[in-house]
């Protein structure tokens, strides 16, 4: 039996507002996370996409798997607004999910408001 540190995928099993962001990570639910996040109805997950990466359908697989529970996806693209590629936008539309790209800061603020309104929202946030 091997001993040592076991590294698991970052996951918070619930919904929570984002308290702060910056310095390459986020704070929420009295915890901090270094890196990007995917905020879903099923919980908050670490997301292996960084500012400057091109968004792909594969990087949003978890979102598409939970499409029945999501009406709208906020895409925090980092410090600057970056368009969602057409194939990604079409895959989201086909799954019945509206989407809007914006800076990560704007996405955090919008997500917190929509979560407080109990909307069927999800977000992907590239760390800044």
UniProtKB/TrEMBL annotation:
Pfam families reported in the protein's UniProt record: DUF498
Spans traversing the lipid bilayer: none
CDD domains: Mth938-like (cd00248)
Segments forming a coiled coil: none
SUPFAM superfamilies in alphabetical order: MTH938-like
Record-linked InterPro entries: MTH938-like_sf, NDUFAF3/AAMDC
Official protein name in the record: Mth938-like domain-containing protein
Organism: Rhizobium oryziradicis
Species classification: Bacteria, Pseudomonadati, Pseudomonadota, Alphaproteobacteria, Hyphomicrobiales
